[in-house]
Amino acid sequence: MTEWHMKSGKKPTGGLLTTHRRSDKRKAWRGGRFASTTIAEAETRKIKKGQGKKSKILLQYVKFATLTEPKSNKAIKGEILNVLANDADRQYTRRNVLTKGAIIRVKVGNEEKTARVTSRPGQSGNINAVFEEFKEEVKTKKVKKHKVEKKKKAEKTAKTADSKEEKKQ
Fold first, then answer.
1. Could you tell me the pTM of the whole model?
2. What span, in angstroms and rounded, lies between the C-alpha atoms of 87 and 141?
3. CATH of region 34-134
4. 93-122 burial: b if 16+ Cβ within 10 Å, else e
5. Tens-place pLDDT, residues 85-115
6. Domains in the chain: boundaries
7. Helical segments of 9-136, H only
8. How many CB atoms lie within 10 A of CB 86?
9. Which residue, 53, 63, 65, 142, has fewest beta-carbon neighbours within 10 Å?
10. What's the CA gap between 29 and 31, in Å, rounded?
11. For residues 39 and 120, what is the distance between their CA atoms, to the nearest angstrom?
């Protein structure tokens, strides 16, 4: 399915913009297909021609990533094992689709580390990533905090109900 890069036909208030109804879709407004870079044993790239003499390298399948240590700025080649999280779409995590911002598990030497993808694989043709500490407990902390707040509210309402009954007697 082709993606269209057009201006919205609505105002921020929700009303219609009459000036944008001036013409049909133009070829210049048409976007490309999503590369959906996934993990595989062999790397596959496609070259896509752009306007003028521009060209983009679409990375379809990848096995290795170039990783950098933030403190020392040294580049290391590591094998991508799987995708731990991808904020672009939760389905991408299940399908191991790599996009910018995806958190991946990487094998460097004998160690397994987590890294965040900093390049755009569908545009640049390679995967660059930065080592990062991935904390999955963040979601559980929020849930626990929410449950604790509910318990406190329930205790307060129980205390006020008890005090009202005592006053009536």
1. 0.67
2. 19
3. 3.10.290.70
4. beebbbbbebbbbbeeeeeebbbbbebbbb
5. 999 998 999 999 999 999 999 999 999 999 9
6. 34-134
7. 90-95, 121-124
8. 22
9. 53
10. 7
11. 15
